Amino acid sequence: MTDAKSLLAVPPAGAAADWTIPQDWARYTPAEHAMWDTLFERQARMLPGRVSPTFLAGLDVLRMSKPGIPDFEELSERLHALTGWRVVAVPGLVPDEDFFRHLANRTFVAGRFIRTPEQIDYLQEPDVFHDVFGHVPLLANPVFADYMQAYGEGGLRSLDLNAMHRLARLYWYTVEFGLIREDGDLRLYGAGIVSSYGESRFALDDPSPNRIALDLKRVMRTRYKIDDYQQTYFVIDSYEDLLRQTLETDFAPLYAELEGEPDLATDAVLPTDTVLTLGSQAYARSQKEAVA
Ligand code: HBI
Ligand code: FE
User: Fold this and answer.
1) Nearest-CA neighbor of 156 among 230, 68, 251, 81?
2) How many CB atoms lie within 10 A of CB 269?
3) Looking at residue 146, what is its pLDDT?
4) Protein residues within 5 Å, CB atom, of ion ligand 2
5) Structural domains of the chain in order of their starting residue, each with its CATH number
6) 156 CB less than 6 Å from ligand 1?
7) Rounded CA separation 176/120 (Å)
8) Which of 11, 101, 116, 238 could link 15 by a cystine bridge, Cβ 3.0 to 4.6 Å?
9) How far, in Å, is the centroid of ligand 2 from the Cα of 93?
10) Which residue, among 165, 16, 161, has the nearest Cα to 94 in the 3D structure?
């Protein structure tokens, strides 16, 4: 669905027609590089044993462990040699259609700015740490790289079928907040989790959220929270399985089927679900009480 925002949205001054801007790596201040290092070291200390080994392999092969905010040109040279992807800078969220087109062209759009100390644990727009530390390492893996391009192509088609919100949910519950079962253990892979100190713990250890085996149709019916930890995490068996499900699905009839089925709440559990953890939702209740 091409909402008003994306219809009316035109790139801001200084941005190209595809919303890209120069990264201007030389203009980052020492304080901004130091913010990256603080965030990087905090995650690098706690992710081993918790995050998918595929993510750590990506960090390694892209040599992201050297200090300071990565230079997208250098990073893209290494990444392109591996899976044909490049990282380009944008001012922030870009309209869905432009976002999908970039993914379909194997360019990953990353925020150029980095969060301030006050925002260290939460910010609304994706900054360079969320986008580059969170999303880019898995793009070094050929299967995940193919999934992200297939997602972009599917997204462009979904716009014509008024089903963008369905794909946004698939993106949210895989690319942003996905869990994977590797060698029988539950591991993190979603960028929104691995770039967040608090959620890297919560998503694996906390008894509050549900953890349910991913089913494409189920995910596309399920609402998500954008401003707090998830009440449900979906688990894939492998990146190959996620890619296979996506490539093998004919989305047009699936979208038609979904028309007749109601959306599911963020904490819903169905009798047909393969439930790994039936969550207590204690955390969500505590937040609601805090609001009330
Ligand atoms: N824009 N820069 C940027 N980064 C995103 O992750 C992003 C976006 N626009 C839209 C979007 N994500 C999601 O709505 C996708 O599901 C389309
Ligand atoms: Fe993201």
Assistant:
1) 251
2) 14
3) 97
4) 126, 191
5) 18-291 (1.10.800.10)
6) no
7) 18
8) 11
9) 9
10) 16
Q: Scanning the structure block, which residue is given the tokens 């070094």? A: 140
Element (H, E) at 247: helix 239-248
- In whole angstroms, give the CA distance from residue 109 to residue 80: 14
Does 168 contact ligand 1 (Cβ within 6 A)? yes
What would the pLDDT profile of 35-83 be if each residue is shown by its tens digit? 999 999 999 999 999 999 999 999 999 999 889 999 999 999 999 999 9
153-205 pLDDT, tens digit per residue, is 999 988 888 899 999 999 999 999 999 998 889 999 999 999 999 999 999 99
Distances 244 to 150, 236, 281 between C-alpha atoms, Å: 10, 11, 32
pLDDT mean over 117-124:
85
Q: What is the dihedral of CA 278, 268, 229, 201, to 10 degrees?
A: 20
Percent of the chain with pLDDT over 90: 82
* Location of structure tokens 């399920």: 222
| Buried-state track 48-81, b at ≥16 Cβ within 10 A, e below 16 | eebbbebbbebbeebebeeeebbebeebbeebee
Interstrand relation of 185-188 and 210-213 (parallel, antiparallel or unpaired):
unpaired
Closest atom of ligand 1 to CA, residue 168: 16
- In the predicted model, is pLDDT for residue 150 greater than 50? yes
Q: Write down the pLDDT at residue 1.
A: 42
Q: Which residues contact 80 (CB under 8 A, 6 or more apart)?
A: 86
Across residues 104-131, what is the average pLDDT?
93
Report how far residue 200's alpha carbon sits from residue 194's, in angstroms, rounded to the nearest whole number: 6
The closest residue, in CA terms, to atom 5 on ligand 1 is: 93
Query: Which helix (H) or strand (E) is 211 found in, with range?
Result: strand 210-213
93 within ligand 1 shell (Cβ under 6 A): yes
